[in-house]
Amino acid sequence: MLNNIGLPGLLLIAIVVLVLFGRGKISSLMGEVGKGITAFKRGVKDSAEDEEKSLEAPRDVTPHVDPAPATAARAEAAKDKV
Question: I need a surface site. Which of 3, 39, 46, 74 has the fewest CB within 10 A?
């Protein structure tokens, strides 16, 4: 049904919308749509930059183990055997 609208039908719809809502309301609505698109593009760009940063500098997530207590325990065990 919607594939038969054509150019005259679209112009008629545009004129009806303009009459119903007025020029000021439509222009403010289009301004808000533009702001939304801009915010969406900014969010996508920021997300892509964050992902690139995370790929550039890998973090070391291995747990830190202090070797001193283990060697001290071995030294104590060696003294006990002697």
Answer: 3
